Amino acid sequence: MAGDIMDRQELLNINKNRKIEVESYHSSFDFDKYEITDENVIKEVTQTEEDIQQIGKFMAKKALEMGRKLKRIQQILSSHGTGTFVAWFNSLGLDKNMVYREINRWEQFEKYRNPAIAEASVRTLEYIKKNNDKLEEAEIVEILEDPLEAAKKIKEIEKKGKEEIEINFDEKIQKLSKKIEKAYKNIEKWEMEIKKLKSRNDDFEED
Length: 207
Prior knowledge:
about 210 residues
């Protein structure tokens, strides 16, 4: 119960923080590129864009809250037979993909306690879930901090990971090459010792 109250409080805090986040909104759209110079048009588009962004954030918060509630029902029904939870959300007409997507969103929020998870894309959340044992906490924050740049950040992290793997392969190849070189030297040394022993044995037999 205490954990549930804390989770609700965190959801409320997400909403409060978002209200304080930006005092004046600035559109990232390049009006000049499309030769839009009318100040009234720019102002209206910018204002409407801000409204859409705020609606999106509100919906994201609600999605996180839905994930929390779905997860709770899943836990309650888990002791009432296999398939009970699926039957329950089917009776509500809920889409299976949506249900498990929002449960995953909530589970990621529970794990990382990062409010940005509320606005993260499905692809971003799936990537974090799949690679959570490989990703550093700083990398996860980097992916989540800017939803629009998440795909780019993921590519950069994957590229870095591949480069590190290639470096590791090179190091292993070098180490194995040195071992082979050392082994050949030992073989030559042992062959010389065998020849000496054979020579001594022949001398002993002649005597």
